[in-house]
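Ops channel
N.P.: pipeline sanity check, posting one input/output pair.
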């Protein structure tokens, strides 16, 4: 590491200051009560007959109030005399096994005891049709045998493609309920065609399967339910397009258009499927998504323990540390890329000995003549954005921005004897 030390030792690290970012924190206080009202108001009860076996599709992402939303939906169906059961609807997540998918739901708090309905987990699917391009459309076998299907999911921007419909109800119908085979089929053609394939696949399922209604949530910048909607089958696509617009408006962000260097303390699958949310960093795993700040160089310093060695996303950064790479489970990380077909994020980015060198390497390569004028933003991860650190060079921008507030004096960053941040 001698030559790297020589190349980087004189690169100055700017003084930093703590900054508070403001976002709308409007949320629904009584989620169960609001959902009950919506279920009654939308008149979906007319589709439910006593004795019907109804599959409720529940996914793998940790969405706010998932247990409450599922439980209220189960209770509503039971009151109408139906027999609801839960079907894990998460594509290939949970190791693409029936037991793994059930375990994922339990980890999210969804159990037979908490929601009042049994969980029927299987990777078996039936093919219900195919698109004109030959792409097969699958659906979970248990769901296909039910008298009715209800879909629960959060609507939010996707991280790898853009379209009127991204991540939400229609993706749950087409990929989630399609299990591993559905996820693999849809990903096989790549994210370039995802925006058109997801709605087409979902339309076939809506036409051929007894989907009764969907429950869609939208979350605010603090991951709290800000909107909840009950959608009838014929209005799912149109309403989801509107909910997607709202989700993008409420998304947290970094209030900077251009950043020379972005430092992220930790990445992990528990933070985002991509390790860090590209909607925040502006760095996307494919060329089919966009938005967020223009970042010249990015460094990621560590991996969360909850990620269990899955370092998907490290390749989206320019630099990382030996500490992160040593925690990496390469097989688990590479499996992510093999399933999604997007392998750039599973590459190992340029690896430096410690935090200080990663910081300096990002500054050195940020394509600026005067290193003392570098603009730097440092965040803990892409979930925690209410308080961040910025370089002294950005404080004029902070002063002029209505949603930014400086909350500390400037200070030097402190590194321990191993060159890692305290």
């Amino acid at each position: 590491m001698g030559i790297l030390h020589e190349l980087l030792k004189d690169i100055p690290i700017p003084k930093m200051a703590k900054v508070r970012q403001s976002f709308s924190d409007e949320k629904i206080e009584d989620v169960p009560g609001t959902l009950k009202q919506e279920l009654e108001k939308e008149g979906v009860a007319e589709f439910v007959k006593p004795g019907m076996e109804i599959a409720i599709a529940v996914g793998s992402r940790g969405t706010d109030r998932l247990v409450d939303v599922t439980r209220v939906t189960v209770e509503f169906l039971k009151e109408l005399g139906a027999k609801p059961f839960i079907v894990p609807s998460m594509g290939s997540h949970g190791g693409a096994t029936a037991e793994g998918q059930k375990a994922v739901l339990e980890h999210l708090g969804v159990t037979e005891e908490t929601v009042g309905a049994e969980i029927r987990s299987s990777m078996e699917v039936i093919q219900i049709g195919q698109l004109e391009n030959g792409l097969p459309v699958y659906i979970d076998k248990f769901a296909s045998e039910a008298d009715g299907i209800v879909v629960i999911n959060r609507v939010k921007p996707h991280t790898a493609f853009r379209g009127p419909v991204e991540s939400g109800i229609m993706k749950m119908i087409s990929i989630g309920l399609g299990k591993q085979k559905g996820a693999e089929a849809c990903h096989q053609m790549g994210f370039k065609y995802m925006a058109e394939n997801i709605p087409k696949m979902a339309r076939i399922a809506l036409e051929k399967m007894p989907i009764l209604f969907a429950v869609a949530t939208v979350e605010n910048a603090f991951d709290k339910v800000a909107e909840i909607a009950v959608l009838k089958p014929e209005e799912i696509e149109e309403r989801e397009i509107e909910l997607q617009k709202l989700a993008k408006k409420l998304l947290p962000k970094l209030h900077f258009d251009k950043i020379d260097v972005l430092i992220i303390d930790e990445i992990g699958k528990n933070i985002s499927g991509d390790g860090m949310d590209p909607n925040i960093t502006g760095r996307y795993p494919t060329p089919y998504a966009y938005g967020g700040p223009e970042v010249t160089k990015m460094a990621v310093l560590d991996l969360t323990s909850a990620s269990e060695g899955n370092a998907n996303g490290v390749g989206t950064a320019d630099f990382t540390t030996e500490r992160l790479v040593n925690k990496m489970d390469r097989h688990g990380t590479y499996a992510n890329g093999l399933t999604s077909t997007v392998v750039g994020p599973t590459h190992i980015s340029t690896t430096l000995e410690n935090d200080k060198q990663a910081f300096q390497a990002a500054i050195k390569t940020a394509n600026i003549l005067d290193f003392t004028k570098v603009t730097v933003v440092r965040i803990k991860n892409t979930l925690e954005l209410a308080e961040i650190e910025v370089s002294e060079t950005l404080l004029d921008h902070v002063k002029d921005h209505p949603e930014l507030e400086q909350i500390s004096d400037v200070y030097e960053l402190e590194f321990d004897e191993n060159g890692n941040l305290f």
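N.P.: looks fine end to end. The chain has a mean pLDDT of 93.
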